Amino acid sequence: MPCYGKIVVIKRNGTDGIVFPLTSTSCLFGRKTECDIRMRLPWVSNEHCKININENKEAVLTNLSAANPTQLNGACFEQPVPLKHGDILTIIDRSFRFEYPLQSTPKKRPSRSPKDETLQQVAEVELLHKQTSGTKSLGAS
């Protein structure tokens, strides 16, 4: 199952709370029982906002509430907004942090010193010279 990121509940004291992995291409916030992240507050709309993952695996936040708009990093927005790692979305007085998954880091090749690289190049040239001179002598006989 792919993981497109995670949504971290920010507790009222500022610490991290429950973490919701984003394993679907859509996450709906609201009061309805069908919502992925359900908030049982009377001021929260049945469908308050949603996060969709687009074809580029980019998370896009859409506000669905006219009465109490969702805020992104403390500001209201009208059009769907691409999320950045660490963005904070706020619904009424509840805040959530969006995080993209950690990228797997490619394994590094062992680094060589310039001296090692020069020795490697010399060895390759010597090997090539032996192969080509051996071929010539074989052809001459």
Quick structural gist:
Pfam families: FHA. The protein is built from one helix and eleven strands, in the order βββββββββββα.
Which helices and strands appear, and what pairs or packs with what?
Blueprint: E1 5-10, E2 16-22, E3 26-30, E4 37-38, E5 49-53, E6 59-63, E7 71-72, E8 75-76, E9 81-82, E10 88-91, E11 94-99, H1 114-140
Parallel strand pairs: 3-4
Antiparallel strand pairs: 1-2, 1-11, 3-5, 5-6, 6-9, 7-8, 7-10, 10-11
Architecture overview:
This is KI67 protein. Pfam families: FHA (PF00498). Residues 27-77 form the FHA domain. One of its GO terms (cellular component) is chromosome. By secondary structure, the chain is α+β, with helices and mostly antiparallel strands. The protein has a domain at 5-70 and 77-99: Tumour Suppressor Smad4. 19% of the residues lie in helices and 33% in strands. It contains 1 helix and 11 strands. The protein has one helix at 114-140, and strands spanning 5-10, 16-22, 26-30, 37-38, 49-53, 59-63, 71-72, 75-76, 81-82, 88-91, 94-99. Strands 2-1-11-10-7-8 form a 6-stranded antiparallel beta sheet, with no helix packed on it. Strands 4-3-5-6-9 form a 5-stranded mixed beta sheet, with no helix packed on it. The longest helix is centred in the last third of the chain and has 27 residues, at 114-140. It is globular, with a radius of gyration of 28 Å.
